[in-house]
Amino acid sequence: MIIAIDGPAGSGKSTVAKRVAERLGILYVDTGAMYRALTHKAMEKGLDLKDEAALINMAKDTEIELVLDKNNKLTVFLDGRDVSAHIRTPELTNNIRYVAPIPGVRREMVKMQRRAAREGKGAVLEGRDIGTVVFPDADKKFYLDADFQERVKRRHKELVEVGMNVDLINIKEDVERRDKSDMERKTAPLRRADDAAVIDTTKLSIEETVEKILSCL
Fold it and tell me: What is the pLDDT of residues 166-215, one digit of tens each?
């Protein structure tokens, strides 16, 4: 079973996808974390983030593995190294917009995502183009969304919980920028698949959202 969960930043899709995968006993694939890991590698290597050819070549020579432990904590391995603690910084978040839209990079990442999902007995994948590009033939598709201010609050809470000192106004600007970049990029923009069920999570708890999805399976 392949389950696709798409939506904008702060819609709750990462936490929800993890819990759905856990409840079903299948793999969880956080595609956003994969792009973050790739961006981290580019920054670490000091690559020009506007050099598309260099970024594509790097993507071809990169291995990313996602491991979810028994406590539902995701560990991201980049070429065998745990980079989980390094891929959520505001600077990296801002730089993803240079890496993620590149068609050649996305082709390599989609290969990696499909390979990971097909290795087991099923997978829950979340991102922005899962139901439209990565797995247009997914068994079930969901599109999560929420009120903009609620999404900003969630993003702020997420960063504070991992020990970052962040300003709410900066978070608002960051979410606005990410929405614009995700929706307006030429390759695989964020949009709802025609056959995806839409869930407004603004007033729903994580568990309520999880139950809504499970009830549709």
Answer: 888 989 998 999 899 899 988 889 999 999 999 999 999 999 999 999 99
- More confident position, 120 or 34: 34
| Domains in the chain, CATH or no CATH each | 2-215 (3.40.50.300)
Phi, psi of 20 (to 5 degrees): -65, -45
Packing angle of the helix pair 168-184, 148-161 (nearest 10 deg): 120
For the chain, helix, strand, coil in percent to 5 are 50, 15, 30
Are 14 and 109 in contact by the 8 Å Cβ rule? The answer is no
Residues 6+ apart with CB under 8 A from 35: 96, 99, 100, 109
Q: Do strands 2-6 and 81-82 pair parallel, antiparallel, or not at all (unpaired)?
A: unpaired
